[in-house]
Amino acid sequence: MDTQFDQAHLWHPYTSLTKPTKTYPVDSAEGIYLNLSDGRQLIDAMSSWWCCIHGYNHPVLNAAVVKQLNQMSHVMFGGLTHQPAIELGKQLLAITDESLDAVFFADSGSVAVEVAMKMAAQYCFEQGLSKKHRFLTFSKGYHGDTFGAMSVCDPHTGMHHKFSKLLHQHIFVQAPECGFEQAWEQRYLAEFEQQIVEHHESIIAVIFEPIVQGAGGMNFYSPAYLQQVRSLCDRYDVLLIFDEIATGFGRTGKLFAYQHAAVVPDILCLGKSLTGGYMTLSAVLTQRKVADGIGTAFMHGPTFMANPLACAVAAASIRLLLESDWQNKVMRIERQLLKELEVNRHHPLVKDVRVLGAIAVIELHEPMDWSAFQEAMVDRGVWVRPFMQLLYVMPPFIIEPAELTHITQSLTITLNELK
Q1: CA-to-CA distance for 331 and 339, rounded, in angstroms?
Q2: Which of 50, 176, 238, 417 has the fewest CB atoms within 10 Å, measured from its CB?
Q3: Can you say whether residue 128 is alpha, beta or left, with left for phi > 0 and alpha for psi between -120 and 50 degrees?
């Protein structure tokens, strides 16, 4: 494998070509394992950025791709339709709340957020709500790398502050401070309530990640916050968008994170594990009032929208998930992560250890350069990708207890080497 060409010419996420970071060549993948070119085998503790919930090279998903490939790999969705899109649409509406009634297929998580924001904006404009021109969101949030998505990411601690002069200025409130199992106090909502009371006439929608803030800080917060926000949005006639790109399809222990609070957004963004990590695809679901309220043509249409290959493997992935004992598997992963990572809570560099579903986070007091840590983990046969002050894992749901123990022990040993 020509890794020199890779280092000299191929941009990897959030890297510089003048100071390229180390990459590890992968020849193949099977189950939870990545097989490197040098013969080493790594447990993927990241599910390839949270996508591969069923692991790699799954025979059921492989068969779905091959079957669809032999029929057609792509056809435009403008004026045409096909069975994989229809089947996937039916599945998504069947497994989400009945009030979500319309589906828009997009290319990626970032594009799903763009679509949701445009959908909410066009709805407001069609209703004659001309004063509405901003979104309300949380600090420490992350919603993607395109311009609309960047504009609702954290403007200071996020990854996109260099583009602040180019981004539309929205309203940010402090990220929720109430832990997932923490008793609710009304003071947690004070800043949010103040902003929506004062600015609801200019707010198109509230947008945030329910229950788990992902790449912006891996924060877990109380379902009560969602319930309070839903109530305020209803009271002041503001749309509510949930970004479940990372949390959808079982990662938090519920099929969707909003189910922890028994509330439903007006618009829901899904992606990442939608296809089981096989192809890029996202979906934006909305309530009928939004779809009907837009009335005229919704102004968005990606070239590869509802790609048949992606829709076919997504439909197969959802069937595979629902036919499995996924919830018990996720709960077993949660219990094991809680038990085996607790020892790290007393490490002098560690600020917090938290677990929810198949997500575990070790937060340090200060950000650090993780390159040496990552290399040490690779030497121990585990793939992780920490960032800022966050060391986290989100393993595939198929992981066995012994394999998960290898991850947690490797994390603890390598972390202890930092003392």
Answers
A1: 12
A2: 417
A3: left
Beta strands 134-138 and 171-173 are parallel
What is the enclosing helix (H) or strand (E) of 341? helix 326-341
**What six digits make up the tokens of 24?**
């590890």
> Cα(382)–Cα(354) distance, rounded to whole angstroms?
20
Structure tokens at 413: 């040993």
Residue type, 325: D
Quick one: 419 exposed, middle or buried, by C-beta within 10 A (0-12, 13-18, 19+)?
exposed
Could you confirm whether 221 is annotated as catalytic? Answer: no
Among the listed residues 118, 132, 254, 272, the single catalytic one is 272
Cα 133 to chain centroid distance, Å, stands at: 26
Tell me the CB-side half-sphere exposure of residue 381, using CA atoms within 13 A. Answer: 13
For 325-372, list the strands marked E by DSSP: 350-356, 359-364
The helix or strand, by DSSP H or E, that contains position 173, with its residue range, turns out to be: strand 171-173
Contacts of residue 237, defined as CB under 8 A and 6 or more positions apart, other chains included, come to 200
Asked if residues 326 and 250 have their Cβ atoms less than 8 Å apart, the reply is yes
Model pTM?
A: 0.96
Which residue in 405, 385, 381 sits closest to 36, CA to CA? Answer: 381
Is 243 a catalytic site residue? yes
Dihedral class, residue 301 (left if φ above 0, else alpha if ψ from -120 to 50, else beta): beta
Average pLDDT over residues 354-377: 96
For the record, the structure tokens of 273 come out as: 């594990």
In the residue annotation, 419 being an active-site residue is answered as: no
Rounded average pLDDT over 176-180: 94
229, 240 contact by CB (below 8 A)? yes
CA distances from 316 to 87, 225, 244 (A): 10, 34, 20
Identify the active-site residue in 2, 14, 165, 419. 14
Contact 172, 230 (CB under 8 A): no
Among 56, 123, 142, 225, which one carries the catalytic annotation? 142
Marked catalytic residue, from 44, 107, 154, 243:
243
- Tell me the two tokens of residue 208: 């945030």
Residue 158's pLDDT band (cuts 50, 70, 90): low
Nearest to 255 by CA among 270, 240, 239: 270
